[in-house]
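During the first year of the project, the team set up a workflow for recording each protein of interest as an amino acid sequence followed immediately by a discrete structure-token representation. This format lets reviewers and collaborators read both layers of information side by side without switching files. As required by the reporting guidelines, we include two representative entries from the current panel. The first entry is reproduced here exactly as it appears in our internal archive.
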Amino acid sequence: MKHRGLLLAAGLLVAGAAESAQWKAVTPIQGTTAEQPVVVKGKPGTYHRAMGLRLNVTGPGGLRVISRWIGPRPARRDTSYSLGISGGTRRVTKAYSARKSGIAGVPGRKLWVSRSRTAYVAIPPKTTQIALTCADPNVYVKVLFSQKPSTLGKLMAKAPDRYADVVRLERKEREVKYYRATAQLPVELEIIGPTTLVMYSRLEFTYDMKGIQNYQVQVTESSQMVHSFTWSVERSDVTRHLDRDDLVPSAGKRTIIQVPAGLHRWSFKPGSALDTIILKFFIPEKDI
């Protein structure tokens, strides 16, 4: 087992609203409003054709644009699409590959539905018109907005005091560092509140783990549970281990945790003894 003291590294700017915010669907105000019902894991939802959509949102807050390719089975296996989002604090252009979803479908119709792809846009403190551009008529979107602003500002990385291993990942040709936690060797972090802790977590897939998997991060202090978070994830398409060929990281999950006043020593571990999870942490620079 390895021990580490406090490490503060160069930080990053939070671009969207906190994950704990309440997200609500936004109705388009202009452009084609062709609707497409989609059922995901038994839950119905409505998507709108992305071509020429316009919508108004009043910030500060964050926007989530969830897109899917929906239509007859594509002739090409490498079907892809580009989605442009203008307005907010910047213009975003996303290029996505369309892979078939195993959990989503269109009720009553045999249509091919891709996995969801999500883009995030920060919204300034005023009424802003958002424009979506997409040349493919088979691309549909669901737009969610949260009026809860992010006030965290610049974040600084915080290394845990105790962990099982350092894990090196490569994401889009950039190396990122996480810390591994198991049920027997949890990650331990000493932190002084009041502050906000930003936690990124991933489940490590072994090659016998297929499809969607659930995992839990349990946070305890003095053996008492203080937080518990649960997610459903798939293997990441863009991130890989640099030092292990037998493990595949899941898509990452971001969590905002409010830390009460005082000195705390928190322990982070997976909910299942069979799982291994990897974590990294950030705190606001202003709280250092």
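The second entry, processed by the same pipeline in the following quarter, appears below.
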Amino acid sequence: MTSSNPDKLLLLILRLGGFCCFAGWAWVHLYWEGPYGILLWRDETFALAEWFGISWDEFVGTGANDGLVQKWLARIGWLYLILSILTLTVRKKSKVQMAFLMGGSGLLVVLSYAKYLAALGQLPIFIEHGSQMLIPVILVLALSLGVRHRATVITAIVAVIMVFSGHGVYALGYPWPTPANFFGMTSLILNVEAETACAILRVAGILDFVVCIGLFVPLARRSCAVYAAVWGFLTAIARPVAGMSTDLIHWGADQYIHEAILRAPHFMLPLYLFFLWKKSEDPVVSEASASLREEEADAYMSHS
């Protein structure tokens, strides 16, 4: 049986979320540099390179030439670019492409772990990357099991909760301090003083946790999903809105646009849940109904 139009829309949302995430990180790797310095610029890493007969100049570069680390980081960028294309081309029976996407999820986990170490082990910075780390997995689950399958939906809910709980902890400033860029973006975009920005962030932090709880409440989950989608979009575009300026080369687009694009899963996954949860339709019931319709169709074909 062919997929219904609503299911095609749900799958398209997951594809676009995965595409934007991988494409944004591809830009980071190819134009700038991946955030792996905390993992690579270590005595242990160089000791391993030295064991393979690689000198210090070959490892870090000479100034005139890139070293082994920079060259491989750029090559990882091409891998992210390939993964972004796979999110649009992968099909239900494309086992090899699905395997590559699962590997892409692993790459995003390593990347998030590197950012976690660079932030001196602040757990929220790892958790808030949950949607990015899990969206390739969710796409594979949607293709192999279905966009309304329990495993797909639960994984998407977990990803959204990770993002909003991580943001919520930082916005509340407890037990980890609120990052300075949170205050900076809020003050600059809303044109408010630091004290007002702090109050706004505290309210936003409380609402982040309301969303996390509301996703489990049938009467509230759709409202929470649409709020999460809107807030996820606003926090994503806050980077280019706050950072871009006509005084910068290319208006600063090369520095900030990708920061919004790679955060697409932060609002795409709540959007997926919003369209999934129709008022008169439960995902588990929908799955059972779809299976029943397939069985009835098979029975009809066998008697035809």
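For the second entry, the following points were noted during internal review. Residues 5-31 form the longest helix (27 residues). Residues 5-303 form one domain. Both points are flagged for discussion at the upcoming steering committee meeting.
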